[in-house]
Write a structure and sequence with these properties.
Order of helices and strands: EHHHHHHEEEE
Largest sheet: 3 strands, antiparallel
Radius of gyration: 17 Å
Strand order of the largest sheet: 1-2-5
Number of strands: 5
Helix content: over 70%
Distance between the termini: 11 Å
Number of helices: 6
Length: 152
């Protein structure tokens, strides 16, 4: 049994893009309260790394749902939340290393802490828990094709 491509992609898009929107929205509120939008725009909208990490997260979550066997609903957020955090850490660490930062691991963990503060990581966990109930499974093969799917 495996999760269908359609629901795996829908799940990954909901989690990755939804968490990005929550993080951007919370940070926008902080920026408005502080009195400036320049840093917000350059961090969330104008930075290609943010969009690249979101796309890589969608790909990683889609593949994780397809490759990993069917999991209990409570376990999906644990696995995918860890994967989401791993993509953030590796992506930000590689970007910091590429730009010549002395401590790329420190930068990666600082940005992961920022993702906690702007509620991006908690949103990813919550969205993952919510969407895990809507994953559809392919039951098995019959006559060379996949049989009908059922709700998990």
């Amino acid at each position: 049994m495996t999760v269908t491509w359609r629901t795996a992609l829908s799940y990954a898009l909901t989690v990755a893009v939804g968490a990005w929107l929550v993080g951007a929205g919370v940070d926008l509120a902080w920026s408005v309260a502080a009195g400036g939008l320049g840093a917000w725009f350059s961090l969330w909208v104008g930075d290609p790394l943010t969009h690249t990490l979101t796309a890589v997260t969608v790909l990683a979550l889609t593949l994780a749902r397809r490759i990993d066997g069917p999991l209990p609903t409570w376990r999906v957020p644990l696995v995918d939340g860890s994967l989401y955090l791993l993509v953030l850490l590796v992506g930000n660490g590689l970007a910091a290393w590429w730009t010549g930062a002395e401590g790329p691991a420190d930068t990666a963990f600082a940005l992961a802490s920022f993702a906690l503060l702007d509620l991006q990581l908690p949103a990813a966990w919550a969205l993952s828990a919510w969407r895990a109930r809507h994953l559809r499974l392919v039951i098995g093969r019959s006559g060379g094709g996949w049989s009908a799917a059922r709700d998990m």
